[in-house]
Design a protein that fits this description.
Shape: elongated
Number of strands: 0
Distance between the termini: 24 Å
Strand content: under 5%
Mean pLDDT: 94
Length: about 70
């Protein structure tokens, strides 16, 4: 899902900075999610997963705004 939304966001978004922020936040959140998963830090694992999911939503919104305008 990340690669599809990322490609769509980069191709349609008028805001390159917004796309960079969403892609960077997703990547950082997934790396940190793996780290906290291995160290069994439960509340942080959920937080990192949620940040990654919200980054995907942000990419979808940026893509929609780029197509609509």
């Amino acid at each position: 899902m990340f690669f599809g939304l990322g490609l769509l966001c980069v191709m349609t978004s008028k805001s390159a900075l917004g796309a960079q922020i969403c892609i960077g936040a997703f990547t950082a959140a997934r790396v940190l999610h793996a780290i906290v998963y291995l160290t069994e830090l439960q509340p942080w694992r959920t937080i990192m997963y949620t940040i990654g999911a919200l980054s995907l939503v942000g990419m979808a919104v940026l893509s929609l705004l780029g197509v609509m305008s």
